[in-house]
Amino acid sequence: MSPATATSSRDLPHPARGDIRLQALLHALSDPMRLQIVRELAADGDELSCSHFDLPVTKSTTTHHFRVLREAGVIRQIYRGTAKMNALRRDDLDDLFPGLLDALLAAAARQAARLGG
Amino acid sequence: MSPATATSSRDLPHPARGDIRLQALLHALSDPMRLQIVRELAADGDELSCSHFDLPVTKSTTTHHFRVLREAGVIRQIYRGTAKMNALRRDDLDDLFPGLLDALLAAAARQAARLGG
Question: A1: pLDDT confidence band, cut at 50, 70 and 90?
């Protein structure tokens, strides 16, 4: 990573908008836990810390899920002090795939309402 | 399988509409080859035989991809004579997740146009 893109050794790598791929996006969202994270980020509309999410898995598994979402270009992860903050890359996704994120969120909500998830 | 649902030993198992899950659908479409199959079925709008698809993989891999799509509830596979025919389960998917299939197809077309896929 060049100094121009990494101002700190704690910066995490993110794909540029043009490098985000639909296949990676769908793979990232095909996991129930990751889909749940994305639904919460979308509902909140703001940055949320990793510790905000109360997932029924180990800390390392949680970290793994966030990394998959980041590497697929679904979320942006930024260190703020000691907290790792997460935000949906809605602008990037809406630009690349207009309407897709909303259709996915609507489908997830519909299924959760049907199955009581 | 009861005689009422399996009229022939060659009938293939399909999930009922209510058993189709968003996660399985997204997983099925997260593979480039399977996404391509679905795009061709959607573009054609009719049943297509497995041999119609000229995929750059072995026959057993092709069979695997069709099975994943069938078990996720994305396609219906029916034997007609010696041919195995494939059709999108558009009615089922549109009923469960209105707008999602079209959003996914539009996203795939958009990415293919952008990347020359």
Answer: very low
- In tens, the pLDDT along B19-47 reads 999 999 999 999 999 999 999 999 998 89
> From start to end of chain A, where are the E strands?
48-49, 75-80, 83-88
Spell out the domain ranges in chain A: 17-108
Instruction: Give the residue from A71, A70, A53 showing the smallest Cα distance to A62.
Output: A53
Please state the pTM of the whole predicted model.
Answer: 0.89
Chain A closest-CA separation from residue B18 CA (Å): 9
Which token pair is A13? 């790598």
Could you tell me the CA-to-CA distances from B98 to A17, B39, B90, B104 in Å, in that order?
27, 18, 10, 12
Which chain B residues are within 8 Å of A98, Cβ to Cβ? Answer: 106, 110
**Tell me, what's the ipTM?**
0.88
pLDDT number for residue A7: 46
Tell me whether A117 touches chain B (CB under 8 Å): no
CATH code matching the domain that covers B17-108, chosen among 3.30.450.180, 1.10.287.180, 1.10.10.10, 2.40.50.1020? 1.10.10.10
